[in-house]
Amino acid sequence: MDTTQIEVIFSIIYTFIATIVGVLLIMIAWLIYEIINLNIKIYTKFYAMKATKRQIKMLHAILAKRGMMDVKQQIVSDSTGGRTEHSSDMQIGEITDLLTRLNKGAEIRLSADQEAGNRMRRRMLSMCYTLGWTKLNIRQFKQTVDLDRLNAWCEKYGYLHKPLNAYTYDELPALVSQFEKFLKSELKAP
User: Fold this and answer.
1) How far apart are CA 28 and CA 33, in angstroms?
2) Where are the beta strands (DSSP E) in the chain?
């Protein structure tokens, strides 16, 4: 073999390798594009599932008109199966069902037991402020109770070891009493 034949063979091999590398780079670029596109679709679908601002405003208007804003958190909690107490965290299906019930004139009443249970829960929330179990709520620009910390305490130390809203009216007095004792012991600690 002479040098020109070797140069031709090397140039063919070089062209072949360059073509393969080029194809691989195009495939990698396409794969990155598809991953980014998929992430955008997932992101869009995730946020599309949240209740819209219009729905939230409608809910607040209906509850205000009925004089039920003071029990909004309990209504939202009941409508979401205890998942959240904030209307802004509701999913489209949950808020649509609630708005439909409210617009049909369905009465949403809390029993006397539920109202008394809510008073006991609010008592515990009040004690959380005393303990300093708060965090900054950016949406409302104020300190609010750190519900994650309170629920963690209820699950770890509460006598039934479950989140606050999972306690029934009959179970709450013992939990409130237990939390009051905890508060007193924390206030006495140096």
Assistant:
1) 9
2) 134-137, 142-145
For every residue of 85-135, DSSP letters joined together read S-GGG-BHHHHHHHHHHHHTT------HHHHHHHHHHHHHHHHHHHHT-EE
Expressed as residue numbers, the domain containing 41 is 1-48
- β-partners of residue 135 are 144
Q: Are residues 7 and 25 in the same domain?
A: yes
Pairwise CA distance, residues 82 & 66, whole Å: 22
Q: Is the same domain home to 124 and 179?
A: yes
Q: Are residues 97 and 156 in the same domain?
A: no
| Owner of token pair 């299906």 | 93
| Judgement on whether residues 2 and 24 belong to the same structural domain of the protein | yes
Same domain, 40 and 80: no
User: What residues contact 125, with CB distance under 8 A and at least 6 apart?
Assistant: 145, 150
86 and 128 both lie in a single domain: no
Co-location of 11 and 44 in the same domain: yes
Q: Does residue 124 surpass a pLDDT of 90?
A: yes
- Give the count of domains, the chain: 3
Q: What distance in Å separates the CA atoms of residue 30 and residue 100, rounded to the nearest whole number?
A: 45
C-alpha dihedral, 66 to 79 to 88 to 38, nearest 10°: -150
- The confidence band for 47, taking pLDDT boundaries of 50, 70 and 90, is very low
* pLDDT tens digits for range 68-100: 787 888 888 888 777 788 899 888 888 888 888
